[in-house]
Amino acid sequence: MSEGFIVSGHDPRFERTLYAHVGRPDAHTLDYYLGHGGYEAARKALASMTPDEVIEEVKRSGLRGRGGAGFPTGLKWSFMPKDDGQQHYIIMNADESEPGSFKDRYILEDDPHQAIEGMILAGYAIRATKGYIYIRGEYRRAYDRLVAAIEEAYARGYLGKNLFGSGFDFDLYVHRGAGAYICGEETALMNSLEGLRANPRLKPPFPAQKGLFGKPTTINNVETIASVVHIVARGSDWFAQMGYDKSKGMKLYQVSGPAVRPGVYELPMGTTFRELIYDWAGGVREPIKALIPGGSSTPMLPFNDDTLDTPMDYEHLAEKGSMLGTGGVILIPERACVVDVIWNLVRFYGHESCGKCTPCREGVAGWLVKLLGQIERGRGKPGDLELIEDLLDNIEGKSFCPLADAAVWPVRGALRHFRHEFERHIEEGRCPLEKKGFWG
Amino acid sequence: MGFFDDKQDWLEIVFRNYPPENRRAAVMPLLRKVQQEEGHVSPERIREIAEILGTTATEVRGVMSFYSYYQAVPTGKYHLQVCATLSCKLAGAEELWDTLRAELGVGPGEVTPDGLFSIQKVECLGSCHTAPVVQVNDEPYLECMNRERLRALLEGLRAGKPLEEIELPGDCGHEVRKEGA
Fold first, then answer.
1. A437: confidence class by pLDDT, cuts 50, 70, 90
2. Which residues are bridge partners to A134 per DSSP?
3. A250-333 maps to which CATH number?
4. Average confidence (pLDDT) over B93-108
5. Which chain B positions have a beta carbon within 8 Å of A256's beta carbon?
6. Which of A48, A59, A129, A358 is the one with CA 20 to 30 A from B83?
7. Distance from B135 to chain A by nearest Cα, in Å?
8. Closest partner CB to A257 (pick from B68, B87, B176)
9. pLDDT at residue B178, as a whole number
10. Dihedral sign (CA A414, A415, A418, A421)
11. A20: contact with B, CB 8 A cutoff
C-alpha cells in the first residue's frame, strides 16, 4: 500500500461501482437502475454544477481514457469550443475490438442506463445536445438492451427535452458497426458514422475543432464515460484515492486464456497481475509462459515473479516496456508457440489495415504477415529477424494512424523476450512445438 | 419491386438518427437490413440503396466492401462465423473451423447444397473469456464451443429449431466470471 492509496481489491475501502450491477437479474431495466441510485449524478450535475465545473471535477479526478491511449479525459473535454453557436457531438466509442477486450460489452448488456447517464453528463460538460453510441455490429444483445434502455429513458423523461427541469436537451442515437477494427480509431469512427469508408482522417483538424459532420466532437470509451457517473456522484477525491500517481480510479481488467475463472474484474488501478490472476481469476489451469498485459497491441511480458508483481497501470507497465492498453490480459500457455501467437496477431492487424497508407498496407499487411508466416511454417532464413526489425523501424511512428504501431508493438515484445523461439524455428526449419490438436 | 418499397416507415425511423442533410450516413443500417433479410447484398440492392441515399452505387459498394459483415455472394440460411483471433485460437478455434469444414463440406464463400449453411472466419468478437466463439447470422454469441456443442448446434439448426431453443450440452469446462460483486 502506498501513501494510503487504494491499490488492491482486498482493501476494505474499495467498493465496486462500474460493475456493481453487472450479472444481476433485470439490472438493464430503468426501474432497477432508479432503484439503485440511477440518474442521481446527472440530476445533481444539471441542477447544481455548470458544464465547466463538471469538466474541472473530471480533471481533478485524474481520469484517463480507458480505450487504451490513456489521454486525460477532463483535458480532452476542455478542448471543446465554448459559446461557438455550433452543434456539438459527444460520441461513445463502443466499438470494442481490441483482441483480449470485452469489458464494455457487459456495461452495455447489463447496465445500459449507466452508459446513458454518463452520456448525459459528458454531453452537458462539452455542451453537446446530441450524442451517438457507436457500437460494434456483432454485439447483438448489447445493442438490443441499449436500444430498449434508450426508449425507456425517453418515455420517462431521462432523455429528450429539458432534462430534470434544467433546460438542457439531450438526444441519444445508436449506430451499429459492421466488423472493422479500424472504427475504434476516432476519426475512422466518425467517417464510418457519416456513411463513408472508415479510413482515418488527417489531424489536425482535431475532432474538437471539426469532428462528426464537421462539428466539434468528443469521443470517449464506454468505461471512461461510465466512470464519470461515479466521479460526479462521489467526487473526484473519492476517485483519486484509488491508484498510483498518474493512474487513478477503478479499472475493468479482463482475463482470457487458461485462467481458472476468465472474465472481467473491476479493481483499483495499480492492482498487481498476481492479485488479478491468482486471487480474483482463481489461478491458472496449465503452465503459462507469457502474458499480454492490455489487449493484443501491448507487448507481451514473460510470466515470472517480476511481471506478476507489477502494478497494472500506465506508468508501471511503461517501465516494463509495455502498456496498460484496455486492461485485457491474455495468458499464453507453455504449449503455445510464440511465433504462431504473434503471427496470429499480426495477421489480425494486417486483415484490419484499411490500406490507406503504405507502411501499414505494405509493411504490416504485406511483409510482416508473410515473413512471420514463413518462419512459423519452417521456411525462415538467417537474417529474417534482422529484416523484420528493420521493417518494424520503418513502420513504427510512420503510419497514418496508430493501427500499424499496434501491430509493431507485439512483435517487438515477442522478439525482446522470446527471440530464442524465433531463432529455433529458423535453425531447425520447422516449428519445434509438437502440434497437438487442442481438442485431442 | 424494390426491397425498401414496403419499408418506408422503417426508413423514416432510420433517417431520424442522422441530420437531414446527411442522408448517406444511413448507408450502414440499410446495408444491414438487406444483409439480414436476403443473406447478401446484390448489385441490384446496392443500386437501390444508392438511389434512396442520393449517392452512387460505387460509393455504396465502397462502404460495403470495407466491412466483414456485408456479403457480396449469397450465404446460407445460417451463416456461421468462427472467431479466429488469439484467445479463441488458444482455445481450439482452428479445430473448430476444421471440424465445421469437414462436417459441412464447404469452404468460405460456398453454401451447402441444402442452402442451410455457410461459414466464415472472422476476427475477435470480444468474448475472449468464453472462447472459442461462434456467431450465427447476427444473433447473440455461442460460447465455449467444442465438438459436442458444435454437433448439437448443427443438429438443432438442421431440425429447424430456432437458435435460442437449441440446447448446447455441457458448459465452458471452467468457471466464467463477469459479475462485479
1. low
2. A93, A175
3. 3.10.20.600
4. 96
5. 87, 128-129, 131
6. A358
7. 8
8. B87
9. 58
10. positive
11. yes
Q: Report CB contact under 8 Å: A173, B89.
A: no
Boundaries of every domain in chain A? 30-240, 250-333, 338-428
Q: Does B20 touch chain A (CB under 8 A)?
A: no
CATH 3.40.30.10 residue ranges for chain B: 78-165
Instruction: Tell me how close the Cα of A41 comes to any Cα of chain B, in angstroms.
Output: 20
CA distance B145 to A154: 39
A 160-219: CB under 8 A from B: 173-181, 192-198, 213
pLDDT at B176: 83
The pLDDT > 70 percentage for chain B reads: 98
User: What's the pTM value of the predicted model, to 2 decimals?
Assistant: 0.96
Domain boundaries A30-240, corresponding CATH code: 3.40.50.11540
The ranges of chain B annotated as CATH 1.10.10.1590 are 8-66
Q: Render pLDDT for A77-116 as a digit per residue (tens, 0 to 9).
A: 999 999 999 999 999 999 999 999 999 999 999 999 999 9
Q: Which of A187, A196, A356 is nearest to B55 (CA)?
A: A196
By the CB < 8 Å criterion, does B135 face chain A? yes
Pick the CATH number of A338-428 from 3.50.50.60, 3.40.190.10, 2.130.10.10, 1.20.1440.230: 1.20.1440.230
- Domain B8-66 class? mainly alpha
- Residues A219-236 have pLDDT tens digits of 999 999 999 999 999 999
Q: Which grid coordinates belong to B138? A: 447476427
Cα–Cα distance list, A5 to A266, A272, A310, A311, A324 (Å): 16, 14, 16, 13, 19
Taking contacts as CB-CB distances below 8 angstroms, the residues of chain B near A101 are: 126, 128
Q: What is the tens place of the pLDDT at every residue in A190-220?
A: 999 999 999 999 999 999 999 999 999 999 9
Q: What is the pLDDT of residue A19?
A: 97
How far apart are alpha carbons B143 and A278 in whole angstroms?
A: 24
B129 touches A at CB < 8 Å: yes
What are the grid coordinates assigned to A128, written together? 453537446
Say whether residue B9 is in contact with chain A using an 8 A CB cutoff. Answer: no
B78-165, CATH topology level: Glutaredoxin (3.40.30)
A348-A354-A357-A360 Cα dihedral, nearest 10 degrees:
0
Cβ–Cβ under 8 Å, residues A199 and A354: yes
pLDDT at A403 over 80: yes
